[in-house]
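Per-record layout

source: Cuerna arida
name: DNA repair protein REV1
length: 203
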Amino acid sequence: MSDIKVSDLPGVGRSTSYKLSTMGLQTCLDLQQVPLSKLQAEFGVKSGEALYKHCRGEDTKKLVFGQVRKSVSAEVNYGIRFQNQSEADTFLEELSREVHNRLEEVKMKTRIVTLKLMIKAKDAPAESAKFLGHGVCDQISRSSPLQIATSDLDSIIREVKSLSRQLNIDPTELRGIGIQLTRLEGEKSVRPSANALDKFLRP
């Protein structure tokens, strides 16, 4: 720990790093020489204690295992330039396929489909400073709750296109599109019961 820079410690941002440097503290070894009381006086009770422990390799945060994924999403905010609604719809289908693939990877179903759009701001120039970048944009979103959880691609595409029609944005003004699936539920495999198997196998 001695040679690790204080700027590399967890929770040490630009302002904290600058303040530590003005105190002549560059490494964990330097920081270890400072009493807890002084660190708390300079950075506050919690932050001072965190610095005191982290420079010694101590972290009392509990490890959390097996966290349940809450959402999957896919977003593109570069190179979005559509000439008409047909091009926008084709892109929505492709992005829906991408987010569906990610949903399949985690073996989940979704109950809420959200469409997020970045729209060129009214006062923004026709083209951004960065080639094909999104530039200055307004952001809007709309969600659609589903009656039952689904992982069906066609259902996701249908909801995304429906949300797009509801928002009714000129496709030539779009600069970014995102699709987010939330309220995820695990896929439940359905196994026939013993009685069902008996009935099926019974002559």
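summary: The chain has a mean pLDDT of 88. The domain at 71-185 is CATH 3.30.1490.100 (Dna Ligase; domain 1).
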